């Protein structure tokens, strides 16, 4: 039986997270442009198969397939049945009508694979909308969107709320506040530093870490982003600004680039394993991988980190 995740991290042991969800589900046949949430209710066996592949590769923390699971994003997604039906999509209901079912079910699927011993992170990504005053999403409305998702993830058995790929500090704050309103689970938050060492909204690693420390977020870090090598610079900046936080490193498997109209990531499992060891040396407590990675990358990371421990 697992310890509460913060107690486990406090023991000093490094936890191995999982790898990509989106690119792996696409490889399993999810149409490009359709988010993984569309498969949670309709193809749950595919979602569980992916979780199982990561657990077999050595993941100790798996993330729910709910990156785009806020009402704001789900309203743009049709059920598979509707999107496969002929005719205009106009007027058809989006998956936002099932926001609670999808998030709760996704957490239940992950929990079923994780069992009693492994951890489930209830994954929350950005709303996809710009926050006011640049966009029209108010802080309060964002808090409510995130609270709704977090509550459903907690109901399905998540061990923590795992907010990721954030670029706007205000949106990250809204997500943390929403998650805390909705449940008592620990809330983690990672940012995507994909633009010259900053997020697309211009937030530096130190600014992000400082803001997270002020809010008392216990685990923070970098995910997705640009080249995985950049974390070697980013993590120390976060460590300095938030000395007490557990650090999370979950980068892409290489810089995405186009080959024959396909997005390709070419960091090998071996390369990602070498880098993971260096993240751990820099103080990372949770290591995994993001876009373009597969269970083979996670198996290599696990091998390297556990051998070194
Ligand atoms: Zn990614």
Note down, in words, how this protein is organized.
With 309 residues, the chain is of the alpha/beta class. The protein has one domain: Alpha-Beta Barrel (TIM Barrel). Helices cover 44% and strands 15% of the residues. It is built from 13 helices and 10 strands. The chain has an 8-stranded parallel β-sheet. A two-stranded antiparallel sheet has the order 8-9. β5 (187-191), α10 (205-214) and β6 (219-224) form a beta-alpha-beta unit. The protein starts with a helix and ends with a helix. The site of zinc ion has 4 residues, from loops. Zinc ion (ZN) binds at residues 224, 252, 290-291.
What's the short version?
44% of the residues lie in helices and 15% in strands. With 309 residues, the protein is of the alpha/beta class. Helix 4 (44-57) packs parallel to helix 13 (295-308).
Indicate the CATH topology: TIM Barrel
The CATH architecture category equals: Alpha-Beta Barrel
Tell me the distance between the termini: 22 Å
Number of DSSP strand runs: 10
Q: Output the CATH class name.
A: Alpha Beta
Q: What spatial order of strands do you see in the largest sheet?
A: 1-10-7-6-5-4-3-2
Q: What's the structural domain tally?
A: 1
Bound molecules: zinc ion
Order of helix and strand elements from N to C terminus = HEHHHEHHHEHEHEHEHEEEHEH
Oligomeric category: single chain
What class, by secondary structure content?
A: alpha/beta
Low-confidence runs (pLDDT<50, min 5 residues)? Answer: none
Level of helix content? Answer: 40-55%
**What is the percentage of strand-forming residues?**
5-15%
Q: In one word, what is the shape?
A: globular
Major beta sheet summary = 8 strands, parallel
């Amino acid at each position: 039986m697992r310890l509460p995740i913060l107690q486990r991290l406090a023991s000093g042991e490094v936890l191995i997270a999982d790898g990509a969800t989106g690119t792996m589900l696409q490889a399993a046949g999810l149409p490009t442009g359709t988010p993984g949430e569309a498969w949670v209710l309709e193809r749950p066996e595919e979602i569980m198969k992916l979780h199982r592949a990561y657990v077999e590769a050595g993941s100790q923390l798996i993330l729910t397939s709910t990156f785009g699971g806020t009402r704001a994003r789900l309203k743009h997604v049709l059920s598979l049945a509707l999107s496969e039906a002929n005719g205009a999509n106009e007027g058809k209901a989006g998956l936002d009508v099932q926001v609670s079912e999808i998030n709760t079910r996704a957490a239940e699927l992950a929990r079923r694979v994780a069992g009693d011993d492994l951890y489930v992170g209830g994954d929350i990504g950005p709303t996809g909308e710009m926050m006011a005053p640049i966009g029209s999403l108010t802080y309060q409305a964002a808090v409510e969107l995130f609270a709704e998702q977090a509550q459903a993830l907690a109901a399905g058995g998540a061990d923590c709320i795992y907010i990721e790929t954030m670029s706007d500090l205000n949106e990250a704050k809204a997500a943390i506040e929403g998650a805390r309103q909705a449940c008592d689970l620990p809330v983690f938050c990672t940012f995507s530093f994909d633009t010259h060492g900053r997020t697309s909204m211009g937030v530096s690693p130190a600014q992000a870490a400082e803001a997270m420390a002020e809010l008392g977020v216990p685990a923070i870090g970098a995910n997705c982003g640009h080249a995985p090598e950049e974390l070697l610079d980013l993590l120390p900046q976060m460590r300095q600004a938030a000395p007490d936080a557990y650090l999370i490193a979950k980068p892409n498997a290489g810089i995405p680039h186009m080959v024959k109209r396909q997005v390709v990531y070419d960091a090998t499992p071996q390369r990602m394993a070498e880098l993971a060891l260096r993240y751990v040396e820099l103080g990372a407590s949770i290591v995994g991988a993001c876009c373009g990675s597969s269970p083979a990358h996670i198996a290599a990371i696990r091998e390297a980190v556990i051998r070194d421990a």
